[in-house]
Every structure is written in C-alpha cells, then in structure tokens.
Amino acid sequence: MKKLPNNFTATLAGLALILVPQMFNAEEVKVSAESGGAAAGEAAAGSAIGGVSAGTIAAVVAIAAAAAAISDSGSGGGAITPEPVEVTPAPAPAPTPAPAEPVIEEFVTEVVIDIPGTAASTQPGATATRTTGATATRTTAATATRTTGATATRTTAATATRTTGATATRTTSATTTNSRQGAAGATIGTDAATGEDLYNVVETYEVEEDYFPVETYDVVEEYNVEETYDVEEVYTTTVTIPAVAASTATATATATREVN
C-alpha cells in the first residue's frame, strides 16, 4: 500500500520537472517580445543561474515539497495543507447580436362567408280594423223634426167675424110712419106732407161675433238623428317571412404579415 503513494509522488515530480521549465520559457519569450531585445537580455541575465531561472527552481522545490507532504500523509506522517491554486475563469461569451428588424407588409385578403338559410315563418304584426259584416244604429249629435201622425188645433193670431145663429133688432136712421104697434118706439116727428107720425125703422139682424180662428195641424216632434253603421273590430295582422336559401358571400379585409 505504501508503494502507491510513492509512485504517485514520483510521477508528479517528473511531470513538474518536464512542464514547468516549458511554461517559464514561454513566459520569458513573451516578455522578450513585449520589452524589446535589450530589456529581455538584461532580464534573462539577471534571473538565470546555470541556464535555469530562479522561477524554475522555486517551482521544482514547491512541487517536491508537495510530493513529500503527500507521501508523509500516506505513511502516517504530519499533514501539510497545499496552497490553493488560482483558477482563471473562462472569458465571458461574446454578446448575441440583436435580431434584424422584421419587414412588415400590408396585403388584402379575401374571406368567404357562409350565410345559413332560414325556413319560412310567420309572426304577429301591427293591429288594424275591419268590418265584421254586422250593422248597428247609434244616435248622432244632430237633431231633426218629424210629424208624429197625430193632429191638433190651435188659435191663430188673426181675428174673424161670424154669425152666432141668434137675431136681434136695432133702429136705423131710416123713418117710417108704421109704429109697428108700438115696437118702433116713440115718434120722432110728423110727415110734412101727410101729417102722420114718423118713427125710426127697426130691423132684425143676425148677431155676429169676433173670434180667433182655430187651425188644425200635424203634430211635429224633435228627435235625435240616428245612423246605421258597419260594426268594426280590431285584429292583429300576420306577417309572413319567406324562406331564404343558404348562400355564400365574399368579403375583403386588410391585414399585415412579416416578410422573410
């Protein structure tokens, strides 16, 4: 078991002796290129001892010490904590270039629309009036007169005379010698030719009277005028909606799209 750590230590020491001088030689070449030929010669002369630089010797010593420490820890000796190795982080990735601005174009597209058909139907519409065929009577605001078929009498504003059927006597302005047996009244004188007494002539006459004439007339009445009319009713009409066949239609619309 102890051979495995020893072999591991020997391997590390050998790799260090091979790689470390190459690393430092590369560093020195870099310094020579940056500082120029004269500065590089002075730096190499000051740091080289027998062809091996001080950095190379220090690196070999450090690797050997680390190998010895590992060997001692495997064989039960005291443990030596190795110094941490500085790890150079990887360079940050280059930023992703911004995407190119898309090109938008406007175009006209045509859309086909299916128009469904509908069946014929009916629905109630507006209200209206119509005659029922029946008739009726009603009074109007007007009035009129008509004869009733009966008659009546009435006095008029005029007057007239008529004989009553009775008789009477009256003296006249005429004279006579006949006394009518005293009915002629007293004598009014004598006749100059004959000397006889003279009397007023008395006559008999039919008695007359004044009266208002009476007329017979047809009785007239005033009444409200009636009319005969057609009876009307209010009803709801029916609207018939015809069937519509299914069809298609096209419509155009404006849209935008990205051009590749």
Describe the protein's architecture and organization.
- The chain has helices spanning 3-35, 37-47, 54-74; strands spanning 48-49, 52-53, 103-115, 121-155, 160-176, 189-190, 197-211, 214-241, 247-259.
- The strands form four sheets. Strands 5-7-6 form a three-stranded antiparallel β-sheet, with no helix packed on it. Strands 1-2 form a two-stranded antiparallel ribbon.
- With 260 residues, the protein is an alpha+beta fold.
- Among the domains are: 3-74, no CATH class; 130-233, no CATH class.
- Mean pLDDT is 76; it is low at 29-51.
- Helix 1 (3-35) runs antiparallel to helix 2 and helix 1 packs antiparallel against helix 3 (54-74).
- Strand 1 (48-49) and strand 2 form a beta hairpin.
- It is rod-shaped, with a radius of gyration of 84 Å.
- The chain contains three helices and nine strands, in the order ααββαβββββββ.
Helix count, per DSSP?
3
User: How far apart, in Å, are the first and last alpha carbons?
Assistant: 70 Å
Radius of gyration: 84 Å
Report the sheet with the most strands, covering strand number, pairing sense and barrel closure. Answer: 3 strands, antiparallel
Measured as a percent range, the helix fraction is 25-40%
Strand proportion = over 45%
Looking at the structure, what is the overall shape? Answer: rod-shaped
Structural class: alpha+beta
Oligomer: single chain
**Stretches where pLDDT falls below 50 for ≥5 residues?**
29-51
- Order of strands in the sheet with most strands: 5-7-6
| Mean pLDDT reading | 76
Q: Which H/E pattern describes the elements?
A: HHEEHEEEEEEE
Count of beta strands:
9
